[in-house]
UniProtKB/TrEMBL annotation:
Annotated CoA-binding domain residues: 9-105
PANTHER family according to UniProt: COA-BINDING DOMAIN-CONTAINING PROTEIN, CYTOPLASMIC PROTEIN-RELATED
Official protein name in the record: CoA-binding protein
Domain of life according to the entry: Bacteria
Organismal lineage: Bacteria, Bacillati, Actinomycetota, Actinomycetes, Mycobacteriales
Signal peptide range: none
Length: 135
């Protein structure tokens, strides 16, 4: 995906769900979540069924329990869990605009299925790195 497409996605995004956000500051998902919150550019919602808060912010157990449908879903999960993440996204009453698979994550079938459902897909890129580079 070209830089101008990524720049447009970042500019149009107002809300982000971080699936797999961690309360452990040494985890990449915590670093990206904290960075996105600190930019002030987005309303960021951590999603993880195993914890209840990160740095005092509530953590939601699933996308369905968020108070909004996020514009972008940033995924920190194992590759074999990507189809179930997409299923969770597609079960929402309204659709996010973008499914973002973090650095190291790609799945061609998930990409095809998500795009067929009308989502933009970014694979194998770090949201923090791309935001810092393009914003």
């Amino acid at each position: 995906m070209a830089g101008d497409q990524l720049r447009r996605i970042l500019a149009e995004t107002k809300t982000i769900a971080v699936i797999g956000a961690s309360a452990n500051p040494t985890r990449p998902s915590h670093e990206v979540y904290s960075y996105l919150v600190a930019t002030g550019d987005y309303q960021v919602y951590p999603v993880n069924p195993t914890i209840t808060e990160i740095d005092g912010a509530p953590v939601y157990p699933s996308l369905a329990e968020l108070p909004v449908v996020p514009d972008l879903v940033d995924v920190f999960r194992r590759r074999d869990q990507l189809p179930s993440v997409l299923d969770e996204v597609l079960r929402l009453d309204a659709r996010p605009k973008t499914l973002w698979l973090q650095l190291g994550l790609s799945d061609e079938q998930v990409d095809r299925d998500a795009e067929a459902a009308g989502l933009q897909v970014v694979m194998d890129r770090c949201l923090k790195v791309e935001h810092a580079r393009l914003a």
